[in-house]
Specification:
Blueprint (H helix, E strand, L loop, with lengths): L1 E3 L1 H12 L12 H18 L26 E4 L6 E9 L7 E11 L9 E9 L2 E4 L10 E2 L2 H5 L7 H6 L10 E12 L7 E11 L2 E12 L1
Parallel strand pairs: 1-8
Antiparallel strand pairs: 2-10, 3-4, 4-8, 5-6, 5-7, 5-9, 9-10
Protein name: MD-2-related lipid-recognition domain-containing protein
Organism: Pinctada imbricata
GO molecular function, one term: lipid transporter activity
Length: 221
């Protein structure tokens, strides 16, 4: 069993499936920068609070809110034209509990070989009072952009044995084929993600064309 931080787990799960990002740097005047930092800090304070997952709320809570109740883990490929498509995916336990184990059963099909450079984007949102609120990009974690997924993966270190055994590996290039594993397990340390419902949507591109796009909805208890 691998022992990883929640950030590394997010990188492996979302990145290898077909999602990613590079921090987009804006240039602001000092006054504007200070204002944005204050706003970001306030937003992070809000998102860092534990929230009751919607599956545990009574139906009366949703009357008049006009929002769809998050009831279980779900995923979908968000670009049918992308080179990589998830054919099946389960993540347990559901809801996730940190610290604790995270188990992944996945089948991935790659229609043609992809290699560097793989620009990518990642959007992480948390549901607060029935509204999805996007996490900002802070220290390369959150809703960020990345210039090259290949470069990011090269910093991860040892590739988990179950991924190696599939023949996929954790480094570019990713060759065309179908890859499946049912014994991918991680020991996740401290609860970096507060309890609540999360939407993780990411995409990668290769030579200007979609290489992968995945949307995950998951719950942390």
């Amino acid at each position: 069993m691998q022992r990883l931080t929640i950030i590394s787990v997010t990188i492996l799960l979302v990145g290898l499936i077909g999602t990613w990002a590079h921090q987009y740097v804006h240039e602001y005047e000092e006054e504007d920068r200070a204002y944005i930092e204050d706003e970001t800090e306030s937003l992070l304070d809000l998102l860092s609070l534990n929230a009751v997952p919607e599956r545990f709320r009574p139906e009366q809570y949703f009357i008049g809110r006009g929002t769809k109740k998050v009831q279980a883990f779900s995923y979908k490929n968000c670009d049918p034209s992308a080179v990589a498509q998830i054919q099946s995916l389960s993540v347990t336990p559901d809801p996730l509990q940190f610290p604790g184990n995270l188990n992944i059963d996945i089948k991935l099909a790659i229609n043609s070989t992809v290699d560097a450079v793989l620009p990518a984007s990642l959007i992480i949102s948390k549901k607060v009072a029935g509204i999805w609120i996007k996490l900002p990009c802070v220290d390369n974690f959150g809703s960020c952009n990345y210039d090259d997924l290949c470069e990011l993966l090269s910093q991860i270190g040892d590739c988990p044995d179950p991924i190696v055994k599939t023949g996929l590996g954790c480094q570019c290039p990713f060759k065309a084929g179908t890859y499946q594993t049912s014994d991918l397990s991680f020991e996740v340390d401290a609860a970096a993600l507060p309890s609540g419902d999360y939407n993780i949507t990411g995409s990668i591109s290769h030579m200007g064309k979609p290489a992968g796009c995945l949307e995950l909805i998951l719950t942390v208890a």
